[in-house]
């Protein structure tokens, strides 16, 4: 049991899949953690329930009207949580002086600035929002270093690799005897489907992940294998690796969460039941270990572990992401923004599944003169790519 004072935690995106799992872990350890802030975009009823259960100091919603609704509801319940609205309020609760740890679990580019605010303020940053590193990896890692922040990857694969590497792992894989990172992928719900069937899938089919229960955007990314592409970029930044040093291994059971292959031939893997409370608990308690509410893996029940190579012909998003990382500059931010627009259109039923990769490829093929050497330039590239993607949608639109 830790003798440290209780830590204040801000949970950005608390009403989402990662946010709910984070609060589950926190609630198991009231002696270690207390909630400073909870944030949502529009889910005001869910945020109210979370405020009543976890008693945060601050709650944040996007609109003034929703914030006013929540303020009145909390007052009516006799609770003194302060309620704020808007994007700057998200950054504020991430950088607040009393906050020890920030779970960055807002989905998409919207999560970049609050996660960066936490890094710049030197917090323990529990990074679920992979889009932040995809968009601005160099700047984000510089901010972590400059501010002395502790960056702990929550994405299951990256958390696994973190657990498989030596404690100090900056300066290139070779420096600490690692030859390759083996990034596992479930292959998504359409792993065994033919290209013609894949072209006709619905949003609900795409969101039915075989092993994980997640938000809809990341579920679609898993189905296109864009998630693995974003994760490849994320791994490059987190572990100082080149795209060529990362091998994607399709492993349909999602029991091995990723591996590090060492120069002496050793391959170290992290295994566990597919439950995000494990990496979340790891991030919250590191370097200690705490109960996450997750059962020990039953290897007799798992019985077998399969591996295969990814099929980039049926799932071109993985190749697009790798190429964007190889291109560098603003390309990963452009890839991410075009993907967000295409996935949104697919989920809205106006774009076919196979057109997601086409829209992303078409936007990446357009000339872009800007770079990604300041956060303003990253945001400009993001905006530019969104406009281009919206124009491309017209060429593929279903209605
Ligand atoms: N789910 C998982 O198992 C994993 C997720 N991740 C990553 O973690 C992040 C979160 O994923 P997940 O929990 O699945 O996503 P969800 O869609 O379930 O939740 C997203 C959260 O972000 C909030 N949000 C959405 N848009 C905005 C916005 N514009 N401004 C402020 N808040 C916003 C949502 O609020 P509201 O409820 O009001 O919409 C919600 O609280 C993603 O980056 C994902 O890639 C990584 C590994 C695993
Ligand atoms: C739980 C998690 O980390 C997800 O990113 C997961 O990896 C998605 O699964 P696949 O992308 O491997 O299908
Ligand atoms: Mn992952």
UniProtKB/TrEMBL annotation:
Cofactor(s) annotated in UniProt: Mg(2+); Mn(2+)
Residues the record lists as binding Mn(2+): 155, 157, 231
Catalyzed reactions: 2-C-methyl-D-erythritol 4-phosphate + NADP(+) = 1-deoxy-D-xylulose 5-phosphate + NADPH + H(+)
Domain 1-deoxy-D-xylulose 5-phosphate reductoisomerase C-terminal: 151-239
UniProt-listed Enzyme Commission number(s): 1.1.1.267
Domain 1-deoxy-D-xylulose 5-phosphate reductoisomerase N-terminal: 9-137
UniProt pathway: Isoprenoid biosynthesis; isopentenyl diphosphate biosynthesis via DXP pathway; isopentenyl diphosphate from 1-deoxy-D-xylulose 5-phosphate: step 1/6
GO molecular function, one term: manganese ion binding
NCBIfam families in alphabetical order: Dxr (TIGR00243), PRK05447.1-1 (NF003938), PRK12464.1 (NF009114)
Protein name: 1-deoxy-D-xylulose 5-phosphate reductoisomerase
Organism: Vreelandella songnenensis
């Amino acid at each position: 049991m830790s003798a440290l004072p209780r830590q204040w935690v801000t949970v950005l995106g608390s009403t989402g899949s990662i946010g709910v799992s984070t609060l589950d872990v926190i609630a198991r350890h009231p002696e270690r953690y207390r909630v400073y802030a909870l944030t949502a975009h529009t889910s005001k009823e869910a945020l109210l329930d979370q405020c009543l259960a976890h008693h945060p100091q601050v709650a944040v919603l996007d609109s003034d009207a929703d914030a006013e609704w929540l303020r009145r509801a909390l007052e009516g319940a006799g609770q003194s949580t302060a309620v704020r609205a808007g994007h700057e309020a998200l950054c504020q609760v991430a950088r607040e002086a009393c906050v020890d740890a920030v779970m960055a679990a807002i989905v998409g580019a919207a999560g970049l600035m609050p996660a960066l605010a936490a890094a710049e303020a030197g917090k323990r940053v529990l990074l679920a929002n992979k889009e932040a590193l995809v968009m601005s990896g160099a700047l984000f890692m510089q901010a972590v270093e400059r501010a002395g922040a502790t960056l702990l990857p929550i994405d299951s694969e990256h958390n696994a690799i973190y657990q498989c590497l030596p404690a100090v792992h900056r300066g290139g894989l070779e420096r600490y005897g690692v030859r390759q990172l083996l990034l596992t992928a479930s292959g998504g719900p359409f792993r065994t489907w033919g290209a013609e069937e894949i072209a006709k899938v619905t949003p609900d089919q795409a969101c039915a992940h075989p092993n994980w229960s997640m938000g809809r955007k990341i579920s679609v990314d898993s189905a296109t294998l864009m998630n693995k592409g974003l994760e490849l970029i994320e791994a490059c930044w987190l572990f100082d690796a080149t795209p060529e040093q990362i091998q994607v291994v399709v492993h349909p059971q999602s029991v091995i969460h990723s591996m590090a292959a060492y120069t002496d031939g050793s391959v170290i893997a992290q295994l566990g039941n597919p439950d995000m409370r494990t990496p979340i608990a790891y991030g919250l308690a590191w370097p200690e270990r705490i109960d996450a509410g997750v059962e020990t893996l039953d290897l007799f029940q798992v019985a077998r572990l399969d591996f295969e190579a990814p099929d980039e012909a049926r799932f071109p998003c993985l190749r697009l992401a790798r190429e964007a990382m190889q291109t560098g500059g603003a390309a990963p931010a452009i890839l991410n923004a075009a993907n967000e627009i295409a996935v949104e259109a697919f989920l809205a039923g106006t774009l076919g599944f196979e057109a997601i990769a086409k829209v992303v490829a078409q936007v990446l093929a357009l000339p872009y003169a800007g770079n990604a050497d300041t956060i303003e330039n990253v945001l400009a590239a993001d905006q530019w790519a969104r406009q281009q993607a919206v124009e491309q949608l017209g060429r593929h639109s279903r209605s």
